[in-house]
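Researcher: If only I could read backbone structure tokens as easily as an amino acid sequence. Walk me, if you will, through where the backbone shape changes along the chain. I have put the entry right below:
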Amino acid sequence: MTINPDDDNIEILAGDPSTGTAEDDKSLTDLIEQPAKVMRIGTMIKQLLEEVRAAPLDDASRTKLLQIHKSSIRELEDGLAPELREELERLTLPFTDDSVPSDAELRIAQAQLVGWLEGLFHGIQTALFAQQMAARAQLEQMRQLPPGMAGQQRGPGHPGTGQYL
């Protein structure tokens, strides 16, 4: 259960647990253990990629960019759940330790990482939007119930308790 501060403190309740699978229960937003850290690193990597696109890189700057790339991935992995960490490890291109990568190799690796992060962020936005739409639907459903019936849906076989005197 979550309280959404943007929609008049609407509680967002999960659906019927008997209809969902274990995979459905773990949303994309739950897979990011440290969202602020992931956002900061993602923004830094994107900015860095834009900066190095315009300038030719010498050996020293390529070595530094390689170090930044590797440390960024390590830091990102700390902020992700194991499932996303494994996906990131499968998708990132490993560099050999015996030589400095070329400009193109570094730019490709950085662009790949930026693309993966942007996909992750879009997935989070989509999940949050879906959650918000579910909350709105729940609110509309509650507004259609007669007064005093919110949270208790009585069928024909379950009459109300009546008034207390």
Notes: Residues 8 and 155 are 29 Å apart (CA to CA). The longest strand covers residues 2-4. Residues 35-144 form one domain. The first helix runs from residue 22 to 25.
